[in-house]
Amino acid sequence: MEFPFVVKRMKKALIIGAGGFVGSYLIDCLHDEFHMDVYATKLKGTELSHPSAQVYDLDILSKEDLVELLYNIRPDYIFHLAAQSSVSVAWKNPMMTIDVNIKGSVNVMDAVRELYYKPRILVIGSGEEYGHIKEGETPISEETVLRPGNIYAATKACQNMIGSIYAKAYDIEMMMVRAFNHVGPGQAPLFVVSDFCKQTAEIEQGLKEPVIHVGNLSARRDFTDVRDVVRAYALLVMKGTAGETYNVGSGNAMAIQDILDMIVGMSSADIAVEIDKNKIRPVDVPVIEADITKINRETGWKPVISIEQTIRETLDYWRTKIGGNVHE
Ligand code: A2R
To answer: What is the mean predicted confidence (pLDDT) over 237-243?
Structure first.
């Protein structure tokens, strides 16, 4: 070995709110692909044990606990994922959604502001923030006017606005994301692709009548595999410009009907479809499709996993979880 040589310290990444769907995928990505030293938080009482991360309990509603954790770990990169992330739960419990998604996020930003050094932080918002899209506004660029159509979307829009104010006012290396629908194995069946795949697996295994209950099938959404999404987050935290917002999506809206047809087509079971009034949300947004030019230009990211692969793996996940390992 030649001298002098430089010993490079591994970068430390902290994921706040890693107990959900995206967290474990982000741990894998940061550890395996970007060779980071990964720290992760979850809510007390929930399960998260991952061989590649040191896990801590944290409620973002406690700013004191947040500050203490940040001082102890001193991360180079912070990913703020913690949220009440369900649109339907937000309709039922707006106050709790506002507490976690707005007050909790401001706690995170404020704790970072008080640090004696400048970590880079990525705050995760949602494509739902754009809300009611007018003709000619699709694909949706980051400059599009926000017209949130539900409570969850409004809290995320607020998080984004406060985030860009904090970044500029306090010179924080903070980037914001608007993540469009992400899907993949392990997602809760509150979300449409996972819901349809679970119902299909249950039908295949004789655990349910051969009917899939659906909501609004005409809505068009932009779906991206969760493994592509977390790669985008890693690139953004390293290469994004402070104070800027980036769309993360596929750039292709698909009708929920087409998703359903794809899932049913992957099964040999005879499946009927029935509209369920409980699954139709009070306000629905007809088309959501991301313009991903900005993230592509600044980080080189684009999604690489096809929707067919994601759906097949999500269906297989439910087939295995439900127990029978039944295939076509
Ligand atoms: O509600 P739980 O037990 O599922 O916990 C969620 C957690 N969380 C919190 N963490 C700390 N302090 C809180 N007060 C608090 N309230 C909830 O944040 C859950 O483990 C995590 C968020 O994970 P998911 O809901 O599964 O979201 P996902 O799909 O991982 O999406 C990550 C981010 C979220 O900000 C979404 O709104 C956005 O991407 O689309």
So the answer is: 98
